[in-house]
Description:
Blueprint: H1 8-15, E1 22-23, H2 25-38, E2 43-48, H3 57-71, E3 75-80, H4 102-116, E4 125-129, H5 131-134, H6 138-146, H7 151-154, H8 158-165, H9 172-175, H10 177-190, E5 198-202, H11 206-218, E6 225-229, H12 255-263, H13 270-277, H14 282-293, H15 299-315, H16 317-332, E7 342-345, E8 348-349, H17 350-356, H18 363-371, E9 375-377, E10 380-381, E11 388-389, E12 396-400, E13 404-410
Parallel strand pairs: 2-3, 2-5, 3-4, 5-6, 7-13
Antiparallel strand pairs: 1-6, 8-11, 9-10, 9-12, 12-13
Amino acid sequence: MRATFPPADEQLALLQRGAVDLVSEADLxxxxxxxRATGKxxxxxxxxxxxxxxLHLGHTVLLRKMAHFQRLGHRVVFLIGxxxxxxxxxxxxxxxxxxxxxxxxxxxxxxxxxxxFKLLDRDSTVVRFNSxxxxxxxxxxxxxxxxxxxxxxxxxxxxxxxxxxxxxxxSLHELLYPLVQAKDSIEMAKLPDVGCDVELGGHDxxxxxxxxxxxxxxxxxEPQVCLTVPLLVGLDGHEKMSKSLGNAIAxxxxxxxxxxxxxxxxxxxxxxxxxxxxxxxxxxxxARKSAVERGELHPKKVKQELARILVAQFHGDAAAADAEAxxxxxxxxxxxxxEVPEIxxxxxxxxxxxxxxxxxxxxKEAQRMVEQRAVTIDGATASSGQQELAARAEPYLVKVGKRxxxxxxxx
Length: 411
């Protein structure tokens, strides 16, 4: 049965929502119009290197853009970079990223496949592994591929240029990464059951995407359209969301954790989160922002709406309602969570106990939290990081800040 698609202008309005780079709009319009005339969906590629087992909300910005294409009737290719993950994507890195073993990559890839279908439609998603065509190339193929690009052009990449100027090492294998990513596009375009009309990526990936576009032209293939999305600011309100920075919300986080972490987000990045992580119409987001600026709407209400949407996305509406009720009871009402981890410790000073329990990263941070009167023991504010937690039959209920709880059983 021949597929039907909305008019190109209607499709472009959705596809350009929250986008940063589009190379080029004219090419995308032409492809959309051809797709509508022929009834053949576009093939939309996005690559994910399984460099860690968890996807976080920063990854879902790209996944949601893939879902936008699916909503319009197009087919997306979820490309798992099992080969490229062993090289290590240098994009945005200030130092060489450690290379992963084959076993580490495949273990991470299994979790990726499970998590992405929380946002993507399985029936209109093609999953491929790029080792399918990159592994058989061998050393001769890699050398020939490297011969298609110059060092001068490679050094146009901002991260390479910055590292070179600051005398930071750049390994030779990193220079291959944009080229093997381009090879992905070339090989997929040649596969009749896959194709590569559009490649998506984060804004920091634009150089790699354009290399693919250029090499496709050289090979006589129709060049891919390159569309990028912003890098999501993390919970600290400043840095790109990253698990290593501790400012991320994982797709697999429990509902109450997603809700609570979202409520800790500073107000400023909240509007970008609404644009990039929800389906709320852009004019409605602008109206909420104006109401907050006029003092007619409290930012907490907007953040609660955002938190409910995010929990419901991954765990359903019932879990979202439960997470909100728990948050209000614990953090607004001063209660205690239903589930508090219990940790066995030896008798020791409070500051050392907080570190041992994983409630703070260091004794210095523990002392700072105590001095700010942000630590309570059994409901009473702690007076000193040196006070002894002596052995007793009942565990101590310890709270650090607004959201960290533990029962410390000292014996």
